[in-house]
Amino acid sequence: PLPSTESTAPSIEGIRTILVIGSGTMGSQIGMAAALAGYETTVQDISAESLAKARAELTARMEATVAKGRLAAAEAEAALGRLSFATDLDASAAGADFVIEAATERLDIKEQIFARLGQVAPEHAILATNSSTLGASKVAAATGRPDRVCNMHFFNPALVMKCVEVVRHRATSQATVETTLELARRLGKQPVLINREVPGFIANRLMGAIQKEALALAAAGIASREDIDTTARTALGHPMGPFELMDMVGLDVIDFIAQATYAETGDAADRPDAQVAALVAEGKLGRKSGQGFYAYPAPGT
Ligand code: 3HC
């Protein structure tokens, strides 16, 4: 092959097979969205248990969508047929035209994954990270193809939320940007382009500002969490109030994002919130643990 001094990023027509790394909340639904859009998709995870859970959840979700009359049974079946689950990264990456990494938000883990992808993914493949805190520039060098690396940041729940933030770093090629934006559109999303890496991109910066204000109002006893959430819904038209949203995203994730942002900016205004950190320390992580700012009954009770 020719040395890759010039971008060889494929056009959208060159994208047929997608690999999603990580089968957590984000990875599993991103994989399902890709399969629904007609792509042969593999969701890869080192944990077979997590893959089994993802498969069960996605199957149940497709069944519910069919039951609501939102999707034809045959389409759901075909989409699930295009979706496979695997533990072997090398084998999964070997045939991928586009990789979306949605693994644990840890730089050392991501560096390892991207270094490996650089070796085993086809030369033309675009390697994207769903990270909201780690700019792709942090892992791009390890791949040997920094021009084909960018952030492709989805929102929770990824099957529903329309936004995808595409973030280019200094070396990302125009072809990579265009193909990634178009892929997001083909997944039924409305992508936005961020021209320079900045902690939190757009959405998490906006969300963080609202959350910070909500936490301050509640901590000062000015209004209850319930009333703050009600106000966000009824005065601002937000689908969820800030406390409900933090519980849905996961307080550990909220705390992690704040820590990562603070580490990067050093700005006192970005300091992680003590109420959130205290709940995390008590194991109260939000909806997924049954308790966060609010209590959530276990499913089926
Ligand atoms: N997974 C998949 N689909 C889901 C879902 C989930 N967890 N929860 C709800 N849905 C689907 C429902 O099945 C339903 O589908 P339908 O239209 O086909 O029937 C649809 O979403 C609407 O759901 P509901 O009617 O049950 O409830 P709502 O109308 O309240 O919608 C919501 C639920 C879409 C989650 C809405 O409340 C919402 O938009 N909330 C805000 C979400 C948000 O802000 N996300 C961004 C978080 S930040 C982030 O992800 C960034 C990261 O870096 C932290």
UniProtKB/TrEMBL annotation:
Family: Belongs to the 3-hydroxyacyl-CoA dehydrogenase family.
Protein's organism: Arthrobacter ginkgonis
Name recorded for this polypeptide: 3-hydroxybutyryl-CoA dehydrogenase
Entry-linked InterPro entries: 3-OHacyl-CoA_DH (IPR022694), 3-OHacyl-CoA_DH_NAD-bd (IPR006176), 3HC_DH_C (IPR006108), 6-PGluconate_DH-like_C_sf (IPR008927), 6PGD_dom2 (IPR013328), NAD(P)-bd_dom_sf (IPR036291)
Keyword Methyltransferase part of the UniProt annotation: no
Pfam families: 3HCDH, 3HCDH_N
Residues that span the membrane, as ranges: none
Domain 3-hydroxyacyl-CoA dehydrogenase NAD binding: 18-195
Keyword terms: Oxidoreductase
Keyword Oxidoreductase: yes
Protein's pathway: Lipid metabolism; butanoate metabolism
Annotated 3-hydroxyacyl-CoA dehydrogenase C-terminal domain residues: 200-296
SUPFAM superfamilies reported for this sequence: 6-phosphogluconate dehydrogenase C-terminal domain-like, NAD(P)-binding Rossmann-fold domains
